[in-house]
Predict the structure of M23 family metallopeptidase.
Amino acid sequence: MNNKEKASFWKKRSAAVAVVICFVAVIAGIGTYTFRNSEDKIKQQVKNAQEETKGTEEKSQSVGTSDIVLPEQEANTSDTEEDTDENATDNNENTADNNEDALQETETSASTYNVWFDENSLLEWPASGATLIGYSMDQTVYFPTLEQYKYNPAIIIGGQVGEEIGAAAPGIVSNIEQTAQTGVTVTLDMGNGYTAVYGQLKEVPLQIGDYVGAGELIGYVSEPTKYYSVEGANLYFEVQKDGVPVNPLDFMEG
C-alpha cells in the first residue's frame, strides 16, 4: 500500500470513527434528556403527594373538640324522659294529696255536723219495695240472675226505676263511684266507724263531703245492672262497721 492509499484509508477510518462518536453522543443526549424528564416528573408527583398529605393532616388537625356536634335528639329525649318521670311523680303525689285532703275534709265535716251512729241507732227503710235477697254472711243464698249461691253482704230491696231514694240515717258523702255490679254507688259516713252503701242509683245530686240528713235525697233507682236483671229494679243497701259488713235489719224496727 502506497502512501496515497494509506492516507485515504486513515481518512475514511477517521470519518467512520467520527460518525460513531456522533451517534453515541446523540444517544447519550437523548438518554440524559429522558432521564432528567422522568426524574422531574417523579419529583413533581412526590411533591404533589406531599402537598395532599399535608393538606389532609391540616384539615384533620383543624377539627377540634369544639367542632364535635353532640346528638341533640338523644339529649332532648333524655330530658323528656326525666320530665315525664318528674311529672308522673308529681301527679302521683298530687293524687295522694287530694285523696288525703278529701278524707280529712270528710272527717272534718262529720265532726262539724256531729254525725254519730252506734249499735243502738235506728235506720229508716230506704226504698219502697220488699227484700228480694237478704243479708247472709254465715251461709250462701241464691242469686236468680247469676243462678248460683253466694254470700250477700247487703240487702237487695225491690223498687221502681226513677224512685227517689232517701238516706236511712244522717251521714257525710265519703265516696261516689260506679261499679259493674252495683252501678252508681254512694257511701255515707254515719260516724263512729259506721257507713251505709247505696247502689243501683242514677242522677245522684251529691258530691264528696256533702251532708245528707235522714230521708234526704241520695239519688234515684236505676235500671238494674246485668248482675240483677232477673231480680229487676232494686236498691243495693249495705251497712258496714269499720269496713266489715253487718246486717242492716239489725238496725231497723219491725
User: Anything to note?
Assistant: The first helix runs from residue 3 to 62. The two ends are 180 Å apart (CA to CA). Confidence is low (pLDDT under 50) at residues 56-81.
